[in-house]
Design a protein that fits this description.
Blueprint: H1 2-20, H2 24-29, E1 33-34, E2 42-45, E3 59-61, H3 63-78, E4 88-90, E5 107-113, E6 119-120, E7 129-136, E8 146-154, E9 165-167, E10 169-170
Parallel strand pairs: 1-8
Antiparallel strand pairs: 2-3, 2-10, 4-5, 5-6, 5-7, 7-8, 8-9
Length: 171
């Protein structure tokens, strides 16, 4: 009987400590992301081309998924952690037009994944879509507080390999 009591007490203690430990999703939610589109709108990226080069089905990202991807990029930058070279600074050499809130600031990019269960990039194939954001704070000093969403872009259906095009916000 005493052994059963000890086992139950240990199990309860483990359950309480696991419940008290913050999950990765909770940690991501603690980073504020400014400048997101309204909740009733979606970011729409070009579809992957078929074998004849014709655009496939477009992909829609919700505000919540975009926010999670930006939060993950900010969080990884603050931890000086890269997954397959992401997040990294985005030079915008092609002068894509992002939000006015991001003009003149250092841009960063991080993958956002297609598919209802994928979303936030944690490794492997990064796909062709990226969120672009500004980090408020200094990742080198690990003083990042939050970020500003600038836009979403895709490699799909561009004329030159490696180029991007903006994914517009739609209803």
């Amino acid at each position: 009987m005493q052994l059963l009591t000890i086992i139950l007490a240990l199990g309860l203690a483990l359950a309480q400590s696991a419940a008290a430990a913050p999950t990765e999703a909770n940690q991501l939610q603690s980073r504020a992301v400014n400048n997101l589109p309204p909740a009733d709108q979606f970011i729409v990226c070009a579809g992957k081309p078929d074998s004849k080069g014709k655009e496939g089905a477009k992909h829609r990202y919700s505000r919540a998924l975009v926010q999670q991807a930006v939060q993950k990029g900010i969080d990884n930058a603050n931890k000086n952690k890269q997954v397959n070279n992401f997040p990294h600074k985005f030079g915008n050499n092609k002068k894509l037009i992002f939000s006015d809130a991001c003009k003149g600031k250092q841009l960063w990019e991080y993958p956002i994944l297609r598919g209802s269960t994928r979303g936030v990039y944690t490794g492997g194939d990064q796909g062709g879509d990226r969120v672009v954001f500004v980090i408020n704070g200094d990742p080198a000093k690990m003083t990042v507080t939050d970020g500003t969403y600038c836009g979403t872009m895709t490699h799909e259906m561009v004329t030159t390999k490696g180029d991007f095009q903006i994914c517009p916000v739609e209803w």
